[in-house]
Amino acid sequence: MLNAGFAMPVNGLKVDVTIATKNSGRTLEKCLQAVSRHIPFHHVVIIDGGSTDSTLAIAKRFNAKITTEPGLLGKVRLVQASSCDTEWIAIVDSDVYVLEGWWSALSEHLKEERVGMVVGFTAPHEDDQSNTPYGKYVAFLNERFGSVAFSNALVKRQLLLQCTELLGGVHAGEDDVFARFLRRNRFTIVNVREPVCYHDTRTSGRHIDAYYRWGKSVRIKYGRGGLFKIAMALPNFGRNWLSFTKASPQRSNLQVLVHLVQLWSYSVAGFLASS
């Protein structure tokens, strides 16, 4: 059973924690144990996409509220918000384990004016790519543009509910859709710079899956005409790579370029798989 007594609320504030799942049995128990220890929650809300493994049994064992939503990820995010009650909600991936300082690091920004989202920073994997050329490229982009991710974030619930752009074929990049909505309405996104969680999957694997889903999402939303949108992502990769290379010129940066082209090819594969 979940216990909210470990993490101290700020000014009595508690949040609903919501987790999207689908066959997440490998990691969900550790995820919920970390939530129990480190987030002062009101309810834990699971939005499940149709799990056939131990996911639902684990969620029930932790007394989580469970709602089924097999739709695209954009809609899932709106269902997460509509299934919660608190002003702010914590959205956590099922393979993310929040660390002891997560709540204090993120919640201190909630009192700041016009903040709509606070995003945590993920601790490096011991076997991940943080010190590889691609890992340094990702760190460069995060430093330059900030990280926008629903993997571990505090979000103002009503703002998420108002972001109806998440409907209509959004199956990847839904965090970026919400970020554009916030900026358009003059809300800010705060990035916490110190590591506050551990993501139990390699960066490269997450990105491959994300670009594949993005390709599928583009096909669903734009039809055949979306191929132009896919094509335009490649020069955008090139511009970011050039900026990175100018900031840190190294021969190994060619490996980054090759990897970026490979990632782009996964978006093409996702697009074609939905045809």
Core attributes:
alpha/beta; Spore Coat Polysaccharide Biosynthesis Protein SpsA, Chain A; 10 helices; disordered N terminus
- Shape, principal axes of CA atoms: globular
SSE pattern = EHEHEHEEHEHEHHEHHH
- Strand percent estimate: 15-25%
Gyration radius over CA: 19 Å
Give the total of beta strands.
8
* Class computed from helices, strands and strand pairing: alpha/beta
Helix content: 40-55%
Sheet having the most strands: 8 strands, mixed
Taking the alpha carbons of the first and last residues, their distance comes to 45 Å
Count up the domains: 2
Return residue spans where pLDDT drops below 50 for at least 5 consecutive residues.
1-6
What topology, given as strand order, has the largest sheet?
Answer: 3-2-1-4-7-6-8-5
- CATH superfamily label of the largest domain: Spore Coat Polysaccharide Biosynthesis Protein SpsA, Chain A
Instruction: Count up the helices.
Output: 10
The CATH topology of the largest domain turns out to be Spore Coat Polysaccharide Biosynthesis Protein SpsA, Chain A
